[in-house]
């Protein structure tokens, strides 16, 4: 049966279509994953609801509360955004590592998050940035912390009548540093393991940190925060030994899959290595920043 | 002498390049015919199952759709290696992916819809998934009994009846057991080479058109003439009514030699009476076309304290999957399995086993990469134990001019030592290097094609004095077309632009065995050279009558007939052609080449044999950086030196080397078809990674030229060897950097890390002393 | 079915296609522009790369309906009659075409790269081609061709 294409002109129209079709239709953002799934007959929607024309899903806005990123921003737009570069450089840096140039040209942040494929690069970073997903349906709006957004392999809390409109992130604390490390054989691959760390320095001690947030991708059915490790690092001094211990602890917080790219044991070990490396890299950057400032 | 050539040995740009880079070249998936239908295949989802019934009725009820299965096609078996295959599964399926039925419809969607309406009732059977389990007594049989199955490839083949062993052979010289007992050290190691995919960018595509009593098939094939013979026999029509035309081929690498879609396309066209086009999806490519033939290789080598190789016993166990296309690599291993080394007491055994998986077939280097990984890895292990430099150990043992090689040939025209020394120099062998950086070497060789390696060519002059070459070999991207034009141009005194070429059409071009095994430059090249010389001689005959000067005093130069004895003679080709075409007869040069004498098939000791020219030799070296914590290998530099005899086109030769090296990089580092209960679980370019632009190190191609007197202008083949040595080079570099030895391909970071960790646990020696 | 108004290589065309037809299928099957190749259909090989409003995209994952009002450029839009453009010539001169199947996509990706970065470094070239696989050449000749073009050779 032929699949219909619905091209709503604004968000209200799109939400109405969502309400009308629910499970029978899928929203299409960049289409870089969805169209492949359709070609492979993994999904066979009766209609696609095209989000391309929705202005409400565009733009990157700086507000007093934080930064609001429209779900239809492509990776290319994230990379080019001066605002993101200045405020949260780690996000465009991760976007630069998503798949290939052609996919970055069309693939969107919203599509990336809703598709929830293990090993994609944006979710670990967004988690470490305390991002929230803003979801709309005809009658209401809800905000879901990204940490609660992902529910399983290729599954999220998004309801069949909802649309992900924006991803909101807090202004990072002053002096904080973000790092994203991707472990893959070649940069355009999905990450075997991807680790993002946002480290908030505690100004008085060398290597001292007030808070650390660690987002990990590719190491569980969903991208996740290494919360126990984060707790253990509160007010710690980030040196070689602490970082190593943190890596080892983070490795106990994941539940990695085995797939054609890597086995579960290997991924777990890599979590340990890359959490350590990310923390040390962040610590080094903080130190360099403080020298630069001095 | 080389300097005397006008076009040979220069980087001539390929004449077929323009149509390709402008997007106008017609590849398999681009062919169309008026009224054509699209064909799709229903494939078995199970690795081994009895077919209780097939119900086609619902599918056939769709308007405009043709649906066929085994009962609708000739009940004949086919296959080049061994006739063990039918168009559709009969009674049972032997691998997940085997064709069970097919449909043709006006578009792909409709054909797929028809397939979805076919009901097949399967009864699952016990299956075998590894060569080791399949070779055991009492294992479930993939093929119960083949009966009088024929092999085009081997005059006789040697199955173990009542088992899955389809061919067992050995090559034996001297007294290996006694020589091993006499050796100071004996090393025994087992290596495993994984199954990789050819991963040509162009998927298989064929279009068959049955009109009246003639069948025409457009297809991207490496061997149109063998395909014609097979299709004509299968459908019971004379070869004169079966025409196979090769489209542009978007890469082959051995994966487009055997028939794939063609028999189904012809059958669908016969039933529907419309032309039928079929194109494989990438998933079909990975699950149902073919991969390489993987092998487990056990090498036992006896060595003297001074490093001299005393004896070698190599045992190959090949997993051919459900069809015996692994026969060529398994058989070839007996010639090539010892590598390019001087070893008198030698035994090479090879066992080919059926399993319930997609077939293994020939892939660039067929059989050589699997053996070379074992031999070249073990050479470094031997060097380590003897305290010798791996370079020195190789220099001491590699074949030299006049040595006797593994198959009792006297070695002639070998540039291997120069290859080895040049890559060692290029890679900085012995120079200081950072920690976690290692370097590795390999020397490799491949024997000539001995299986009916025959080629023919026509060269004819056009009215304006330009010329046309006709050959039956396929251009698959390797640059055959430009090289054939260069050969003709050199002989005829023409610029390359004045030579056109047509290739691989059984209706118009002369016979050729096809494009495989690095054979075209040599064999087709010789046919073209002979044909061009014939055409030149006919041209001079006409000119001789025109100027009344003996032919022996005439020569060709710059599109003119000239004479050093009679400087006043200067006839434009055009004038001679005008005479030929108006008052004599057209000039048609013919060339036909079959190598030198009758070639032996192995085991050949019992046969009268003759020297077979055209061994290929190469040496490679790699420098790699290994991350000890992650197992990730970053190759920094690769040098690859090839004894090409004579580089006919330097651009093409460099291209073959660099391209082969990168394919070798994938084979070494990450390529592997992965199975779960016989089903391939990574059938896409996302899950089956081939090297991408971002993984490419600095690569230095080196051409060493030790001319082969029998080859065209001294040339040897070049296509395959560059893939072969990269895996052992990297394995050796890992050892050089970290002191760990990996024996299974690919050298995936997970495996590297495992090896590093287990070495930390126990530091066992990789050798054992022979009994004193 | 939908009637699409497309601009392909500077020419306006109207074409009827299913609502969710992919750009690759429309180009190949309805407009007979077979320069964009079908290689994997999963957006990994890049043989189907074309440019939409200048950006390199894999046409196997682009809805044709989304391209209305945009400029589509395919390999058929390069060169002039029988004359190749300078980048195409550079590809041939450096041996960047072996089987040629990846060529049109590589060319499109290279064009897009050179337009936003006329003087790329080797690493930038590698990154710019990260969506295009080649099994024949080992990529090096393609890098060489692009770098030589950028140098004005």
Give a verbal description of the structure.
The complex is a heterotrimer of chains A (294), B (772) and C (153). Chain A is of the alpha+beta class. Helices cover 37% and strands 23% of the residues of chain A. Chain A has 12 helices and 14 strands. Chain A has a 5-stranded antiparallel sheet. In chain A, helix 11 packs antiparallel against helix 12. Chain B is globular, with a radius of gyration of 27 Å. Chain B is an alpha+beta fold and 772 residues long. The longest helix of chain B has 28 residues. Chain C has 153 residues and is α+β, with helices and mostly antiparallel strands. Helices cover 31% and strands 16% of the residues of chain C. In chain C, a hairpin with a 2-residue loop joins strand 1 and strand 2. In chain C, helix 2 crosses helix 5. In chain C, 65% of the residues are buried. The chains are: A alpha+beta (294), B alpha+beta (772), C alpha+beta (153). Chains A and C meet through helix 2 and helix 6 of A and strand 4 and helix 3 of C.
Name its key features.
heterotrimer; A: 294 residues; alpha+beta; 5-stranded antiparallel β-sheet; 4-stranded antiparallel β-sheet; C: 153 residues; 5 strands; 31% helix
Major sheet of chain C, described briefly?
5 strands, mixed
Largest sheet entry of chain B = 7 strands, mixed
Poorly predicted spans of chain B = 597-608, 765-772
Kindly report the average pLDDT value of chain C.
97
Secondary structure tally: strands of chain B: 31
**Separation of the first and last Cα atoms of chain B:** 56 Å
List the helices and strands and how they pair.
The complex is a heterotrimer of chains A (294), B (772) and C (153).
Chain A: E1 4-6, H1 11-21, E2 25-28, H2 34-39, E3 47-50, E4 60-62, E5 66-70, H3 75-80, H4 82-87, H5 90-95, H6 101-106, H7 109-115, H8 122-128, E6 132-136, E7 141-145, H9 146-149, E8 150-152, E9 155-156, E10 163-170, E11 177-183, E12 193-201, E13 209-217, E14 224-225, H10 227-233, H11 240-253, H12 264-293
Parallel strand pairs in A: 1-3, 2-3
Antiparallel strand pairs in A: 4-5, 5-10, 6-7, 6-10, 8-9, 11-12, 12-13, 13-14
Chain B: H1 17-21, E1 37-43, E2 49-55, H2 57-60, E3 66-69, E4 92-93, E5 99-105, H3 108-116, E6 119-124, H4 131-135, E7 165-173, H5 176-182, E8 185-193, E9 205-211, E10 214-219, H6 224-235, E11 242-246, H7 262-272, E12 276-279, H8 282-289, E13 291-292, E14 295-303, E15 309-321, H9 327-336, E16 345-354, E17 360-361, H10 368-386, H11 390-397, H12 416-427, E18 437-446, E19 455-461, E20 467-471, H13 480-492, E21 499-503, H14 520-547, E22 555-557, E23 560-562, E24 570-572, H15 573-583, E25 588-593, E26 616-626, E27 633-643, H16 650-669, E28 675-676, E29 679-680, E30 698-704, H17 726-738, H18 749-761, E31 768-769
Parallel strand pairs in B: 1-12, 10-11, 13-17, 15-16, 20-21, 27-30
Antiparallel strand pairs in B: 1-5, 2-4, 2-6, 3-5, 7-16, 8-14, 8-31, 9-10, 9-12, 14-15, 18-26, 19-20, 19-25, 22-23, 23-24, 26-27, 28-29
Helix pairs in contact in B: 10-17, 13-14, 14-15, 16-17
Chain C: E1 2-8, E2 11-17, H1 23-30, E3 49-52, E4 55-58, E5 71-73, H2 86-93, H3 103-116, H4 122-128, H5 140-150
Helix pairs in contact in C: 2-5
């Amino acid at each position: 049966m032929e699949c219909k294409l619905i091209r709503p002109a604004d968000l209200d129209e799109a939400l109405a279509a969502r309400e009308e079709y629910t499970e029978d239709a899928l929203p299409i953002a960049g289409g870089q994953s969805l169209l492949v799934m359709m070609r492979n007959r993994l999904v066979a929607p009766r209609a696609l609801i095209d989000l391309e024309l929705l202005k409400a899903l565009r733009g990157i806005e700086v507000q007093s509360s934080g930064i609001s990123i429209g779900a239809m921003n492509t990776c290319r737009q994230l990379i080019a955004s001066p605002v993101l570069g200045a405020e949260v450089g780690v996000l465009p840096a991760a976007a630069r590592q998503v798949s290939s140039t052609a996919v970055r040209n069309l693939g969107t942040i919203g599509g990336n998050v809703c598709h929830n494929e293990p090993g994609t690069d944006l979710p670990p970073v967004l988690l470490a940035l305390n991002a929230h997903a803003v979801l709309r349906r005809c009658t209401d709006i809800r905000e879901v912390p990204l940490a609660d957004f992902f529910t399983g392999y290729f599954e999220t809390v998004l309801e069949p009548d909802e649309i992900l409109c924006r991803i909101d992130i807090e202004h990072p604390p002053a002096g904080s540093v973000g790092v994203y490390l991707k472990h893959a054989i070649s940069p355009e691959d999905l990450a075997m393991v991807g680790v993002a760390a946002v480290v908030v320095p505690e100004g008085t001690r060398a290597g001292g940190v007030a808070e650390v947030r660690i987002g990990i991708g590719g190491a569980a059915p969903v991208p996740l925060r290494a919360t126990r490790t984060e707790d253990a690092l509160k007010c710690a001094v980030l040196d070689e030994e602490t970082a190593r211990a943190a890596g080892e602890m983070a490795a106990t917080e994941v539940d990695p899959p085995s797939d054609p790219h890597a086995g579960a044991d290997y991924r777990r070990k890599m979590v340990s290595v890359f959490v350590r490396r990310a923390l040390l890299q962040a610590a080094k950057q903080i130190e360099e920043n403080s020298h630069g400032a001095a | 002498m080389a300097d005397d050539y006008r076009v040979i040995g220069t980087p001539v740009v390929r004449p077929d390049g323009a149509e390709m880079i402008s997007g106008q070249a017609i590849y398999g998936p681009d062919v169309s015919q008026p009224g054509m239908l699209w064909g799709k295949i229903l494939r078995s989802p199970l690795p081994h199952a009895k077919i209780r019934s097939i119900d086609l009725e619902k599918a056939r009820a769709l308007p405009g759709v043709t649906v066929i299965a085994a009962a609708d096609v000739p009940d004949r078996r086919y296959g080049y290696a061994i006739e063990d295959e039918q168009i559709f599964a009969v009674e049972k399926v032997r691998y997940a992916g085997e064709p069970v039925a097919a449909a043709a419809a006006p578009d792909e969607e409709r054909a797929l819809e028809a397939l979805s309406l076919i009901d097949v009732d399967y009864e699952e059977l016990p299956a075998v998934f590894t060569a080791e389990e399949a070779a055991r007594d009492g294992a479930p049989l993939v093929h119960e009994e083949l009966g009088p199955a024929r092999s085009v490839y081997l005059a006789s083949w040697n199955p173990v009846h009542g088992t899955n062993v389809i061919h067992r052979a050995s090559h034996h010289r001297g007294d290996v057991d006694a020589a091993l007992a006499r050796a100071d050290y004996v090393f025994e190691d087992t290596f495993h080479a994984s199954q990789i995919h050819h991963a040509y960018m162009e998927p298989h595509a064929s279009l068959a058109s049955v009109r009246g009593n003639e069948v025409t098939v457009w297809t991207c094939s490496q061997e149109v003439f063998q395909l014609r013979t097979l299709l004509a026999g299968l459908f019971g029509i004379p070869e004169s009514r079966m025409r196979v035309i090769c489209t542009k081929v978007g890469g082959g690498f051995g994966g487009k030699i055997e028939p794939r879609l063609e028999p189904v396309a012809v059958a669908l066209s016969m039933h529907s009476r419309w032309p039928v086009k079929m194109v494989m999806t990438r998933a079909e490519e990975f699950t149902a076309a073919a991969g390489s033939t993987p092998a487990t290789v056990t090498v036992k080598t006896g060595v003297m304290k001074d490093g001299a190789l005393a004896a070698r016993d190599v045992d190959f166990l090949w997993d051919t999957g459900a069809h015996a296309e692994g026969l060529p690599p398994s058989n070839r291993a007996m010639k090539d399995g010892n590598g390019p080394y001087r070893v008198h007491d030698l035994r090479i055994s090879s066992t080919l086993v059926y399993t319930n998986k997609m077939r293994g077939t020939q892939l660039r280097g067929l059989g050589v990469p699997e053996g070379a990984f074992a031999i070249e890895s073990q050479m470094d292990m031997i060097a380590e134990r003897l305290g010798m430099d791996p370079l020195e150990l190789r220099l001491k043992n590699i074949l030299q001019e006049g040595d006797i090689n593994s198959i009792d040939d006297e070695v002639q025209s070998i540039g291997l030592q120069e290859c080895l020394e040049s890559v060692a120099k290029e890679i900085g062998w012995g120079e200081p290097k950072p920690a976690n950086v290692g370097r590795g070497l390999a020397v490799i060789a491949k024997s000539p094609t001995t299986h009916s390696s025959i080629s023919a060519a026509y060269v004819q002059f056009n009215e304006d004095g330009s010329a046309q070459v006709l050959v039956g070999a396929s251009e698959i991207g390797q640059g055959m077309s430009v090289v054939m034009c260069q050969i003709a141009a050199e002989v005829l005194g023409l610029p390359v632009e004045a030579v056109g070429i047509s290739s691989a059409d059984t209706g118009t071009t002369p016979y050729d065995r096809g494009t495989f095994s690095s054979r075209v430059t040599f064999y087709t090249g010789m046919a073209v050279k002979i044909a061009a010389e014939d055409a030149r001689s006919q041209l001079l005959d006409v000119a001789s009558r025109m100027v009344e000067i003996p032919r022996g005093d005439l020569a060709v130069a710059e599109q003119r007939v000239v004479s050093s004895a009679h400087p006043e003679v200067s006839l434009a080709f055009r004038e001679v052609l005008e005479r030929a075409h108006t008052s004599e007869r057209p000039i048609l040069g013919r060339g036909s080449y079959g190598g030198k004498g009758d070639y032996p098939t192995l085991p050949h000791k019992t046969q009268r044999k003759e020297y077979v020219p055209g061994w290929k030799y190469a040496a490679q070296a790699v420098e790699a950086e290994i991350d000890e914590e992650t197992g990730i290998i970053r190759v920094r530099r690769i040098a690859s030196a090839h004894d090409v005899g004579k580089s006919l086109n330097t651009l093409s030769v460099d291209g073959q080397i660099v391209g082969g090296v990168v394919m070798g990089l994938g084979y070494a580092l990450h390529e592997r078809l992965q199975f779960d209960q016989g089903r391939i679980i990574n059938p896409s370019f996302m899950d089956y990674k081939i090297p991408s632009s971002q993984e490419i190190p600095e690569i230095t191609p080196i051409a060493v030229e030790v001319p082969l007197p029998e080859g065209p202008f001294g040339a040897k083949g070049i296509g395959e060897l560059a893939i072969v040595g990269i895996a052992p080079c990297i394995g050796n570099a890992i050892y050089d950097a970290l002191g760990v030895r990996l024996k299974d391909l690919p050298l995936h970071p997970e495996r590297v890390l495992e090896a590093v960790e287990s070495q930390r646990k126990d530091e066992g020696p990789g050798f054992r002393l022979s009994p004193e | 079915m939908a009637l699409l108004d497309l601009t392909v290589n500077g020419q306006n065309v109207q074409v009827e296609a299913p609502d969710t037809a992919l750009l690759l299928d429309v180009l190949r099957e309805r407009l007979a522009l077979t320069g964009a190749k079908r290689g994997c259909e999963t957006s990994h090989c890049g043989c189907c790369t074309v440019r939409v409003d200048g950006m390199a995209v894999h046409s196997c994952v682009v809805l044709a309906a989304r391209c209305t009002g945009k400029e589509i450029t395919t390999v058929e839009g390069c060169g002039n009659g029988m004359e190749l453009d300078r980048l195409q010539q550079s590809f041939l001169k450096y041996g960047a075409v072996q089987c040629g199947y990846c060529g049109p996509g590589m060319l499109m990706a290279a064009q897009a790269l050179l337009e936003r970065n006329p003087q790329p470094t080797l690493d930038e070239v590698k990154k710019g081609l990260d969506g295009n696989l080649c099994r024949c050449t080992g990529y090096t000749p393609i890098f060489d061709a692009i770098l030589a073009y950028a140098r004005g050779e």
